[in-house]
Amino acid sequence: MVKEERDAAAEVLKALAHPVRLGVIEILANGERTVTQLYEELGCSQSMMSQQLKILCQQKLVEIRKDGTQKYCSLCNRDFLKVFTCMHKHLRVFLNFQD
């Protein structure tokens, strides 16, 4: 990677560096959800969810479409879920987390 790519990659990884944002990605791995479903499932406020979705959208990790009064969220790039597979293995093998 050239410097600009490393800088951009760091920004994408920063966008993931929050438990709520990680939770959003995990939930959306199973398909589209409304903003309401996301904040209810993750146990955070609507304003917190809006802030976190803004960060994920800025890095093109999540996209939001509006249908009437509902906002639906989905993953932009499902290949990005491979990062979660690597993280899961790292947590289990190297940091001794258990299922």
Helix share bin: 55-70%
* DSSP E strands, number: 3
| Rg, Cα atoms, Å | 14 Å
Q: Low-confidence spans: pLDDT under 50, at least 5 residues?
A: none
Shape: globular
Strand-pairing-aware structural class: alpha+beta
What fraction strand?
5-15%
Strand order of the main beta sheet, please?
Answer: 1-3-2
- What is the element string, with H for helices and E for strands? HHEHHEEH
Largest sheet: 3 strands, antiparallel
Note the gap between the termini. Answer: 35 Å
Tally the helices.
5
Give a verbal description of the structure.
- This protein is α+β, with helices and mostly antiparallel strands and 99 residues long.
- The protein is 58% helix and 14% strand.
- It has helices at residues 3-16, 19-28, 35-42, 46-58, 82-93; strands at 33-34, 62-67, 70-75.
- The protein has a 3-stranded antiparallel beta sheet.
- Helix 3 packs across helix 4 (46-58).
- The model has no long low-confidence stretch (mean pLDDT 97).
List the keywords.
99 residues, alpha+beta, 3-stranded antiparallel β-sheet, 3 strands
Short note summarizing the structure:
The chain has 99 residues and is an alpha+beta fold. The chain contains 5 helices and 3 strands, in the order H-H-E-H-H-E-E-H.
How is the topology of this model organized?
Elements (H helix, E strand, L loop, with lengths): L2 H14 L2 H10 L4 E2 H8 L3 H13 L3 E6 L2 E6 L6 H12 L6
Antiparallel strand pairs: 1-3, 2-3
